[in-house]
Design brief:
binds 2-acetamido-2-deoxy-beta-D-glucopyranose, transmembrane, 22% strand, 939 residues, cell membrane, single chain, Leucine-rich repeat, LRR (right-handed beta-alpha superhelix)
Length: 939
């Protein structure tokens, strides 16, 4: 489904072609030496690595004449002014530049620049310097990047963005600007004043392309004054909300208007005076009411229309289909259209692209679809087999997530022009045949039930294949395939997760473009072969061999992988030290997961300023030494998990300044000392999960931290939307101890909040302020030396599902308020000095003796000791634990993986459904697979 957008993006980007082919004109005077050295200096300030997919498909980058020619006006991508010889245009798009653009960059000394194209390089989240505003004569500025919503064209997630931070107001000094493209920089933000200034000052603007940039705080009013010369406005996926100004539809020259995927953008399409040249209108997933017949009859030039998930008014589907005489591209996805699709109505249309995904269509694809070259029909209820014949000019066929069964019909193997084929998430069976498509770029057959032996010759004709996903076909035997060589030499993305493979595919030895490699959940044995590190040197950015049987050490060659962003070697048997050169990688890494191996020694890396790390997981190794202090440089850090190691030191309160930190797990290490007081005013503002258990912390519970854990306080803040941590390109997982089990939350729900300080030497009282942390789902202070009464404020923790205060020295009665905790499913107060009545009724009827034993003074149900004036109120029999015990309220689901109870059991990763029952206490657990609904965004 990622594919829709991807393909669309590909398809629609094509005509835009490459902006600038500034060819060298041999009659120009030689270039000025200061400009020549500025250019060289600029270029040499970057490492050169892999550019990205876009460049492979559309550009021929070798720009190496810079070394051979002395006159900079003769360099590829450089254009000089014919009169004065000044450099006036620089096109370094797709040059594979990696590094930061500093405000002191020599680029900014090229004052005469009129065109600058730095598209598709990797500037590592540089901010756009205000110095860009200094190019007085700039007409074309292009800093686009290839990601949109984190997805690349070939259907797998891509890393990060090129520029980040705030859009500088100085861009509005570029009053001669005609074309501005900053699209795809999804970590960039524009605010109202700067956009307003931009629009007011740039009166010559014809192209404004900002899709993917965060405009969530922008007031749409400021778009009112857009220049009347505007031909292209692309603001897809900008989080715009509110009313879209009417006058934009009347701009006399507007040809391309794309504002789709701004979910809360509303407005009304005009009923008169449309800007008639409009060719491309993207409104999917907005709140505009749309009257298609009206649009079609009034916009005579309209060729492309996307209205997926929109509200239709006026005469409805399917009657308008027969009127689509001029449209070539139509997106009707995300509606509730059902029944047979009326293919015959398309007979006289010129439609080439049709997206019917996410409807309830049934039936078969037609034998004759006329001009259609692109059919997207994923996630319909189609339960039939594919037809015998489909038009031979088909380029894109996307049928994911239907209920298609049987074998793949033979015609599929021979469609000559096919480029994209998605048959994933269906019920296909049988052998996979030999693909004949020499132009196939993308092939996805994952999540089916194919069987038999996959011979390498199946792929021998696929000379153009860039992306292959065969994951999760448990009955396929891939041995001949993985041992083959000389196939798939163009591969960029290979996904063979859960495929029973036993080796890293040999053909990857020559796969020099490999970027994304997911071999998780297999049976790969032995050492990590060093050739992988050679092959992926410039391009590999996602590498997962998690959950295999790898042994040996992590080779230091790994540090060759200069583009690496996501590295996952978790759940293997790797040993020895983490190579010291890891520091070299840490500048780029976003997600490093080495948990559950046998790594020892200290964690070697020093993280530099500007570190991009979001998630660092080293749980379950034998690491020693201290936590690296340099982690404070990782301002984006969300998850830090050093649990189950031998780390020592005191509480790392220096982490309190990390604004994004959500998960801090230091469980089972050698930490000691008191926690102390925060050093800053708002410590740990986003912390949701903290586990300090099984250490030697002592002193009082840290009241002054509890007071500020804002993210744990606002229970209702973001209940509306189900959010998981990690964004579109990675999903975070973490192990928590929940109700006595080690449970891996494969997706960390952003509402999930727990505190576990158990098995330390904390003393003193449980502070009253704990009652403020109202989103807490789990609280564990067991096995400490806590005294005095349980605070009544515990009764305010209305979301609490498990509470363990056992093995302390608590006294007094159990606060009656606890009976109001209707979510509470697990209670352990055993081994304290509690006395008096056990609260009765509601949840308390479900707890057994085990919850209270070792408190000699307690009386009432379920204890045998009767209270002095007990009325003998007989509670209802304790209810059996529900099967959906781990399915929390408000409908969110988890994929949970049980890793065992205590140290007894060990379970592997199981998708789907697993029932677990292990003695005491008896829990039946329903493991729910959480399908995240990832909408695609087209730009
Ligand atoms: C920016 O440059 C890229 C790569 O050269 C190109 O594909 C894109 O169309 C350009 N943007 C504009 C608005 O011309
Ligand atoms: C620019 O500044 C950066 C960081 O402040 C520094 O590392 C770099 O050497 C400077 N470059 C130039 C050309 O002065
Ligand atoms: C900008 O353009 C104007 C008019 O073409 C010219 O006079 C001026 O020298 C240019 N400025 C720079 C810095 O190139
Ligand atoms: C508008 O452009 C002019 C000319 O470059 C510049 O002097 C002025 O500061 C700009 N105004 C704003 C609000 O940026
Ligand atoms: C859209 O608006 C609704 C209601 O104001 C809000 O709850 C929701 O979070 C918004 N959605 C997005 C994607 O901004
Ligand atoms: C759609 O086509 C039908 C005939 O096929 C015609 O009668 C009708 O007026 C058309 N509707 C519009 C809105 O053009």
């Amino acid at each position: 489904m990622v594919l829709f957008f991807l393909i669309f993006f590909l398809f629609l980007s094509l005509p835009n072609s490459l902006l600038s082919s500034f060819s060298f004109n041999s009659s120009t005077p030689p270039c000025h030496s200061h400009e020549s050295s500025a250019l060289l200096h600029f270029r040499n300030s970057f490492a050169v690595g892999y550019s990205n997919y876009y460049c492979d498909v559309y550009s021929n980058p070798p720009k190496n004449s810079w070394k051979m020619v002395t006159d900079c006006c003769g360099w590829d991508g450089v254009t000089c002014d014919t009169m004065a010889g000044h450099v006036i245009a620089v096109d370094l798009s797709c040059s594979g530049l990696h590094g930061l653009i500093h405000p002191n960059s020599t680029l900014f000394s090229l004052r005469h620049l009129q065109r600058l194209n730095l598209a598709y390089n990797n500037f590592h989240g540089s901010t756009i310097s205000s110095k860009f505003g200094g190019f007085a004569n700039m007409t074309h500025l292009n800093l686009t990047y290839s990601t949109i919503a984190g997805f690349s064209i070939v259907g797998y997630p891509v890393a990060g963005s090129s520029f980040a931070g705030n859009f500088p107001s100085e861009i509005s000094h570029l009053s001669k600007l005609v074309s501005l493209d900053l699209s795809g920089n999804i970590d960039m933000r524009i605010e109202t004043p700067n956009l307003k200034r931009l629009i007011q000052n740039l009166t010559h603007l014809t192209e404004l392309v900002l899709y993917g940039i965060d405009m969530s705080s922008v007031s749409t009013n400021c778009l009112t004054n857009l220049s009347s010369s505007l031909t292209t406005l692309r603001l897809n996926g900008c989080q715009l909300k509110g009313k879209f100004p009417d006058n934009i539809f009347h701009l006399p020259n507007l040809q391309v208007l794309r504002v789709a995927y701004n979910y809360n953008l509303t407005g009304s399409l005009p009923t008169y005076n449309w800007s008639t040249p409009l060719k491309s209108l993207f409104l999917s997933e907005t709140k505009f009411p749309i009257n298609i017949p009206y649009l079609i009859s009034n916009l005579k030039s309209l060729k492309e229309l996307t209205v997926g998930g929109c509200n239709f008014i006026g005469s409805s589907y399917p009657t308008f289909l027969s009127n689509l005489t001029q449209l070539t591209s139509l997106d009707l996805s995300y509606h509730n259209f059902g029944g047979q699709f009326p293919w015959s109505l398309l007979n006289n249309t010129g439609l080439t692209h049709l997206d019917l995904s996410y409807n309830n269509f049934i039936g078969q694809l037609p034998e004759v679809t006329r001009n259609l070259t692109q059919i997207f029909s994923s996630n319909n209820s189609s339960n039939s087999q594919l037809l015998n014949k489909i038009p031979s000019n088909l380029e894109y066929l996307v049928l994911s997530g239907n209920l298609l069964n049987g074998t793949i019909p033979s015609w599929v193997y021979t469609i000559p022009s096919l480029r994209y084929l998605s048959l994933d998430h269906n019920k296909f069976t049988g052998h996979i045949g030999e693909f004949q498509h020499t132009s196939l770029v993308y092939l996805n057959v994952s999540f089916n039930n194919f069987s038999g032996n996959v011979e390498s010759k199946i792929f021998s004709k696929l000379k153009s294949l860039q992306s292959l996903d065969m994951s999760n076909n448990p009955n396929l035997s891939l041995h001949s395939f993985t041992s083959a060589t000389n196939i798939l030499s163009k591969i960029h993305s290979l996904q063979l997760s859960s495929s029973n493979i036993t080796e890293i595919p040999q053909f990857l030895r020559t796969a020099e473009y490999i970027e994304y490699l997911d071999l998780s959940n297999n049976h790969i044995k032995g050492n990590i072969p060093s050739w992988v590190m050679e092959v992926g040197k410039d391009s590999l950015y996602y590498f997962s061999v998690s959950r295999n049987n790898l042994t040996g050490h992590i080779p230091s060659l790994i540090c060759n992988l200069r583009s690496l962003r996501f590295l996952d070697f978790s759940y293997n048997h790797l040993n020895n030290m983490i190579p010291p050169c890891f520091g070299k990688l840490s500048d780029n890494l976003i997600d490093l997961n080495l948990q559950s191996n046998n790594l020892n020694g200290t964690f070697p890396t020093t993280f530099a300023k500007g570190c991009h790390l979001r998630s660092l997981k080293l749980n379950g190794n034998q690491l020693e030494g201290a936590l690296p202090r340099s982690l404070v440089h990782c301002r984006k850090l969300e998850v830090l998990d050093f649990g189950n190691n031998k780390i020592n030191g005191t509480f790392p309160c220096w982490l309190e300044t990390l604004l994004e930190l959500r998960v801090l797990i230091l469980r089972s290490n050698n930490f000691h000392g008191a926690i102390g007081n925060p050093k800053t005013k708002f410590p740990f503002p986003n912390l949701r999960i903290i586990d300090l258990s099984h250490n030697e912390f002592h002193g009082l519970l840290p009241t002054n931290f509890f007071m500020y854990l804002k993210a744990m306080m606002n229970a209702n803040a973001d209940k509306g939307e189900l959010k998981y941590m990690g964004d579109s390109y990675y999903q975070d997982s973490v192990i928590v101890v929940m109700k006595g089990y080690f449970i891996e939350l494969v997706k960390i729900h952003s509402l999930f909040t727990t505190i576990d300080f158990s098995n330390n030497n904390f003393k003193g009282e449980i502070p009253e302020v704990i009652g403020e942390l109202q989103s807490l789902k789990g609280l564990n202070f067991s096995h400490n030396n806590l005294v005095a009464r349980m605070p009544q404020s515990l009764g305010n923790l209305t979301n609490l599902e498990w509470l363990d205060l056992s093995s302390n020295k608590l006294t007094g009665e159990i606060p009656i308020q606890l009976a109001d905790l209707t979510m509470l499913a697990f209670l352990n107060l055993s081994e304290n000095h509690l006395s008096g009545h056990i609260p009765q009724g509601k949840q308390f009827n479900t707890f057994t003796n085990d919850s209270y034993h070792g408190n000699l003074g307690l009386c009432g149900f379920p204890m045998t000791k009767v209270c002095g004036n007990d009325e003998g109120q007989q509670p209802s029999p304790s209810s059996t634990i529900q099967e959906d015990d781990f399915e929390f309220e408000n409908g969110f689901h988890w994929k949970v993986v049980l890793l065992g109870y205590g140290c007894g059991f060990m379970f592997g990763l199981g998708l789907g459904y697993l029932v677990f029952s292990s003695g005491k206490p008896k829990w039946l657990v329903n493991i729910v697979y959480g399908g995240r609904h990832n909408k695609l965004q087209r730009s």
